[in-house]
Amino acid sequence: MFWHLFYYRLKILITNLPLIFWTMVFPILLGLLFMAAFSNLDQANLLNQSAIGIVSEEDTSEFETMLNSLQTDEGELFTVSHLSKQEATTQLTNDKIIGYYEFDKADIQLFINQNHIEQTVLSEFLSQYLQIQDKVTVLLNAGVNPEEIHAQLVANEDFITESKERSFSQSNFYFFALLGMTILNGFIWGLGNTNDQQANQSANGIRICLSPRNKFVVSFANLLASFVLFYLQSLVVLGVFHFIYRVDFGNNWGWIFLLIAIGSLNALSFGTLMGNFSSKISFDQKITIGTTLTMAMSFLAGMMGTESIKYWISQNLPLLGKINLVNLISEGFYQLYYYQSLQPFYHNLLWLAGFTVVFFLSNVYFERRVSYDHL
Questions:
Q1: ABC-2 type transporter transmembrane domain spans which residues (predicted)?
Q2: Which of 287, 186, 189, 191 is nearest to 237 (CA)?
Q3: Is residue 252 within 8 Å of residue 339, measured between CB atoms?
Q4: Other CB atoms closer than 10 Å to residue 103's CB: what's the count?
Q5: Bridge-based pairing state of the strands 107-111 and 100-104
Q6: What is the pLDDT of residues 317-339, one digit of tens each?
Q7: How far apart are CA 228 and CA 113, in angstroms?
Q8: DSSP conformation class of 97
């Protein structure tokens, strides 16, 4: 009986052309607009030599030496000038420098007023420098020979050379966010399932409630049919982005397929939960609420040119980024492409899987409690 229900639900979903358009064709067309808008974005954001400041009353020659080691084919990446706190603040406000480091005893702080690739390099450099500084301190306290420590630091140059093999692409970032939004739009499929299962929403729901079939079996068959079709549809979008739009997703294709699978199941469960939780409002109102939530999450994930907001959230409100489903999915693509270590991706995937389990169990709870006064 289960496979009979699954087969016929699949046939019904395949014939729902408006739904397929908005969850597959529309993202592909939107990606085409992205291609037109961002075709020269990476060339426009190539690293040029930029001016930065250092605010310090102590010797910073060691820090500057490491900073000057950051170079492009044209030469040093940054020109450094020593400034007072007031001068640095004024020049940063007037965009004469892109940022400045302030040394206060053992603490080093970076001040920026924008979040472009140059500022990201400054932030990453400071993070790496502080990590190296901590390691050196620990090794010296442990009695390690300073010459051996120096040899280890020189060996880090190999890492710099290898990291150049994958260049930063800002257009990729927007496509990752677009794919995250596309996957979460699968909530519409989950809403459609609940609409066809609830007796106060549709005639199909009345027939299902009057039938002798187990309601959980019907619900699971609908969910599985939606998942299979939506997952394949998401792979089509991925294929168009990669093979036609030439978006590079890296080489971790196994993890990419798993991320899309969990993201698709998450979106379907999220939509089903919305339908179960708000069973007394109309289907169109649910679509409006779900679309509004999806667009808000896409905005906070940086898809609308709001990557600076995404960066601010990651620095100041990291939990907000962890409960943003679009951000979790798009960040997964970002981590698989740019990060050498997959540890952050595993952590991100656990959050996404955790939400999926919570949504699924919540749906089971709501559907077991459904009852009607009369049909």
A1: 19-361
A2: 186
A3: no
A4: 16
A5: antiparallel
A6: 989 999 999 999 999 999 999 88
A7: 46
A8: S
Instruction: Determine the average pLDDT of the residues in 235-245.
Output: 96
The pTM (predicted TM-score) of the whole model is: 0.69
φ, ψ for residue 310 (rounded to 5)? Answer: -60, -45
* Token pair listed for 51: 């001016």
Cα Rg of the chain, angstroms: 26
Name beta bridge partners: 72: 75
The rounded mean pLDDT for the chain is 83
User: 160-206: per-residue pLDDT in tens?
Assistant: 433 444 555 678 888 999 999 999 999 999 998 888 877 556 656 55
Q: Quick one: residue 250, left, alpha or beta (phi over 0 = left, psi -120 to 50 = alpha)?
A: left
**At 109, which helix (H) or strand (E)?**
strand 107-111
Contact 170, 45 (CB under 8 A): yes
d(CA 365, CA 248): 41
Tokens for 322, please give them. Answer: 């962890």
Residue 159 has pLDDT above 50, yes or no: no
Contact at 8 Å (CB) between 195 and 283?
yes
Residue 261 CB burial class (10 angstroms; 0-12, 13-18, ≥19): middle
Distance CA 194, CA 207 (A): 13
Please state the separation of Cα 227 from the chain's center in Å: 21
Give the helix/strand (H/E) hosting 110.
Answer: strand 107-111
**Which residues are within 8 A (CB) of 155 and not within 5 positions of it... i.e. 6 or more apart?**
none
Burial environment of residue 53 by CB neighbours within 10 A (0 to 12, 13 to 18, 19 or more) = buried
Can you say how many angstroms the Cα of residue 77 is from the centroid of all Cα atoms in its chain? 28
- Does residue 50 contact residue 180 with C-beta atoms inside 8 Å? no
Can you name the residues that pair with 80 across neighbouring β-strands? 52
